[in-house]
Amino acid sequence: MNEFPIEYTSTCAQSPLVFSIMSPTLLLGPLHELQWMLHDSDLVRLMRSTRVLYVDVYRTVALPWLFYPFGLLARSTRPVPALRCVELGNVDHNLHHVFSGDGLKGVRVLRCKNVESACICLLSVALESNRSITTLYLSGNRICAQGALCLAQAFKANVSVKTVDLSDNRISDMGTSCVAEALKTNQSITVLNLSSNLIPPVGVSYLAEALKTNQSVSVLDLSDNLVGCTGVSYLAGALQITQSIATLNLSDNSIGDAGTCSLAETLKTNRSITALGLQFNEIGDTGVFALSGALKINQSIAALNLRENQISDIGASYFAEALKLNPRITFLDLSSNKICAAGVASLVATRGRILPSPRGGGPNVGS
């Protein structure tokens, strides 16, 4: 692999721009200093050798020249074969140099953190025609409903993005309705993370309607929202129709026993879900009774996370009975419940390798 023989760090105490590249290894400081050392052609050559690009800009010192190299690449007639991952943090509207033209051509993974909402709209326009980005991480940007609307428009046209992380963005029900509308036509997104978005039951109803026709989403994370038992009932209705969801994370949604019972009825017929996260949901023995009854029939679920609920020895005995009839389950997390020695003994007697783990772990069905 050819490396561009430059390593440059700024002596400025508040260096506003850092390029951090691995393989080849390269560290660049502010471009207003660097431009005294390199011609445009040298800078383009340097960018062409980069595989991972990290840009972190303090808003207080952000200036248009910070994205000068992206402007060069956008005007270049040659593709950028090496650049594969770009991470942008703490940037403002000057990002138009990145998102205009072919500034993101060839990039496969894009991660944005703490960027202005206007930048999300610019990104959405770029995504409509971009065919290289497959993974989009937009967690923690507070894009709200307006940003979700812009992205939804892009998802209707984009056919390359497969993984979308919109967690911690406060999109609420209005933003969820926009994303749901896009999912009715988009058939490329396979992983969708909507955790920590203040999504209420009505927002889940929009998403549930979309999932009835969408056949691409296989991993859905709705953890740490406001789903409740009502929202779960909407989702359960969709899961009776769609058979594409394989991993479902509903942790920390206060679904309780009522919501668990609703979900259990669906699991009797659903054959797609293999990993289910229900931790931190105030589920007691009543909910476990319904869930264990479904597990006696369901033969698809392999991993079940019920950590931090209100399950007692009685609930453990329900699971023990279900495990006798269900050899498919290989991971069951019952840690931090109310299970004592008697409940542990019943589980061990049934399936010695499945125990209420004191530290959790297992497949990725929520943490």
What's this, in brief?
With 367 residues, the protein is α/β, with parallel strands linked by helices.
Identify the notable features of this structure and list them briefly.
eleven-stranded parallel beta sheet; 367 residues; Leucine-rich repeat, LRR (right-handed beta-alpha superhelix); alpha/beta; two-stranded antiparallel sheet; disordered N terminus
What does this structure look like?
By secondary structure, the protein is of the alpha/beta class. The protein has 13 helices and 13 strands. An 11-stranded parallel sheet has the order 3-4-5-6-7-8-9-10-11-12-13, with no helix packed on it. Strands 1-2 form a two-stranded antiparallel ribbon. Helix 9 packs parallel to helix 10 (256-267) and helix 12 (313-325) runs parallel beside helix 13 (341-350). The relative contact order is 0.06. Mean pLDDT is 78; it is low at 1-40, 57-77 and 353-363.
The description of the largest β-sheet is: 11 strands, parallel
Low-confidence stretches: 1-40, 57-77, 353-363
The CATH topology assignment of the domain at 227-367 is Leucine-rich repeat, LRR (right-handed beta-alpha superhelix)
Task: Give the oligomer, counting copies of the same chain as homo and different chains as hetero.
Answer: single chain
Tertiary shape: elongated
Beta-strand residue percentage:
5-15%
Structural class: alpha/beta
Give me the CATH architecture of the domain at 227-367, please.
Alpha-Beta Horseshoe
